[in-house]
Specification:
Layout: H1 10-23, E1 30-36, H2 37-45, H3 48-51, E2 56-63, H4 65-68, H5 71-83, E3 86-91, H6 105-110, E4 114-118, H7 121-130, E5 135-142, H8 147-160, E6 165-171, H9 174-182, E7 197-200, H10 203-208, H11 214-220, E8 224-226, H12 231-247, E9 252-254, H13 266-275, E10 276-278, E11 281-284, E12 288-291, E13 295-297, H14 306-309, H15 325-329, H16 353-356, H17 361-367
Parallel strand pairs: 1-2, 1-7, 3-4, 3-5, 5-6, 7-8, 8-9
Antiparallel strand pairs: 10-13, 11-12
Helix pairs in contact: 1-12, 2-17, 8-13
The structure holds iron/sulfur cluster.
Length: 383
Amino acid sequence: MKYVSEFRDGSLARKLASAIAKEARSDRVYHLMEFCGGHTHAIFRYGVQDLVPENVNFVHGPGCPVCVLPVRRLDDAIELALHHDVILCTYGDMMRVPGTKQKSLIKAKAEGADIRMVYSTQDVLKIARENRGREVVFFAIGFETTTPPTAVALLQAKAEGLTNFSVFCNHVLTPPAITHIVRAPVEPGETPVRIDGFLGPSHVSSIIGSEPYEPAARDFRKPVVIAGFEPLDVMQSTLMLIRQINEGRHEVENQYTRVVTREGNRKAQDIVASVLELRREFEWRGLGTVPESALKIREGFSEFDAEKRFTISAKQSREVKSCECPAVLRGVKKPTDCKLFGTTCTPENPVGACMVSSEGACAAYWTYGRKRAAGAVPRGAAA
Ligand code: SF4
C-alpha cells in the first residue's frame, strides 16, 4: 500500500537500526518522549524498542485523548446522558472508560441512557435531523486532529438552524501540554522524568503545522522531531533526535514531510478559530490544570454549547486510587509499574483509561504482549 508498506520495510529498518546504534553514544542514555499514543503503539507493535540500543529509552507521553480526559468531565457526560433525557453521541473509545465508581458510558447505556457511538460528527448531525423532538449532544473529545470536524458540525448546525444539537466540548491542545511536561509537573515524592527530546505528534501537526512547537524547543532546549506513525518513521525520527542531542541542537525538525508543513492546514485552523476559543485553563488527567490548553465554544455559538444549555452537576468525582494512569501519562511510571496491570486490569476489564483506549500505553503493553504479567494470557492467545 502506497505510503504504508514502504515505511514497514524490514531491510530498511535494519539499516536504520545500525545507523542509530552507530550514532548513539554509549556513555549516556537518551530519554525520548513520544507524545502520542499512536507512537507508543507503533513502538510496541513493531518492536522498535528492540531495534535500538538499550540506552535509548522511550518515555511514553500523554498523547491519548481518551486517557487525558479527567474523570470529572466523563462523569458530567454520564450525568447528562442519564438525567437530562438527551441522545449522547461520542466516539467508540470513550464508551468503556471508567468514571467514578467504575461507571462508564456503556454501563449508563445498559441502565437505559440513550448513548450512541458515532464515527464522525456528520453522524451526530444526521441523528439530530432525524430526532428533532429530542436534544442531541455530541461529547467531543480529542486533540487538534479531531477539532476541525467538531467546528464544521457547529457551523453546519447554525446554517441549518438545527436547534436540538449541542456540543459538550473537551478538545485539548498539544503544544501547551508539551510545555507543561518540560516544566516537569511531579507529585510529592516523585522523581522528575528526564526528557532529552520529543517525538512530536504527526496527525495533530498535519493541522497545526510544526511551528507551534518552536517556542518549547527553543526555551527549554528540547529538540522535537515531528514523526509519522509507521515503524520506519519512528526509527528515522529517533535517529534525527539522537543527532540533534549529540550536536547540542534543539530545533523542531519534520520527519513527516509527506503530510506535515511548518504552517499546517490554514483552512482548518481558520474554521476552528471561527467557532472555538481558548479556555483559560483545563484540567488534564495526570498533568493537572494546564493554562490555555483546551478550547471552548465561542459566545456567538453559545446556543450549541451543552455546558450552557444544561445544568450539569455530577457528584464528587474520584479516580481509582491504585490506578497509576496519572503517573503513566506524565511518563513517570511505566504501565508495568502498576500493581493492577494484567491482573485486575486488562482490556476486557479495564480499571483505567490507559487500558481502554486504542492509544493508551497500558493497552499497548498488553496488546503486543510485552512485559505481560507472568501467568496472565490475553483473550485469543494460546496458553
Ligand atoms: Fe490504570 Fe490499568 Fe494502567 Fe494500572 S494498568 S495504570 S489500573 S489503566
